[in-house]
Specification:
Strands 1-2 form a two-stranded antiparallel sheet. Helices cover 47% and strands 6% of the residues. The chain has helices at residues 10-13, 53-74, 78-97, 101-106, 120-131, 134-137, 146-151; strands at residues 108-112, 153-157. The protein has a domain at 53-157.
């Protein structure tokens, strides 16, 4: 039996312990995990572990607030403009750097299941789903929102 999930690159989990990690395929029939990211072969805590809901909510709030301020100061339709500014900020920063400013402030990054930065298409789809709100607040036992599952990404801690 392999020591990690076959769909997860060694780059994503390099240097992480595997003791007790579930190494089989991930499906709805997979045995219950003891912690977020276990089914993906990720560590329970520390760098490379799955970010919790609170950290992800904090990051999106840190990204959203400047967009609200700019939209209120510069546009006639602040609610729509805020959403457009947030989407543009997210696509550009996550696509180029693998994390948004909010992610950077909280020590998080977005990675695909191969361990690298997600591609531009995945970033665009992920951002559009975040803008719909529902996929971002519905998440699985691995702590991945529907928007992350849809494009094969995961939000990881960097520290």
């Amino acid at each position: 039996m392999p020591d990690r999930h076959p769909g997860v690159s060694p780059r994503l989990t390099a240097g992480t312990p595997r003791w007790g990690a579930y190494a089989g395929p991930v499906s709805r029939w997979t045995p219950a995990a003891h912690y977020r990211g276990q089914r993906l072969g990720l560590p329970e805590q520390g760098p490379g572990s799955v970010a919790g809901f609170g950290a992800r909510l904090g990051a999106i709030t840190l990204d959203w607030l400047p967009c609200v301020v700019m939209a209120n100061l510069a546009t006639e339709n602040p609610p729509f403009s805020t959403l457009v500014l947030f989407a543009a900020l997210t696509v550009l920063t996550v696509g180029a750097a693998g994390r948004s400013p909010g992610h950077a402030m909280l020590g998080l990054r977005v990675a695909d299941l191969d361990g690298g930065r997600p591609g531009w298409g995945a970033v665009v789809v992920r951002t559009l789903l975040i803008c719909l709100a529902v996929p971002a607040v519905v998440y699985d036992v691995d702590g991945r929102g529907l928007h992350d599952r849809a494009v094969g990404t995961v939000v990881l801690r960097e520290r």
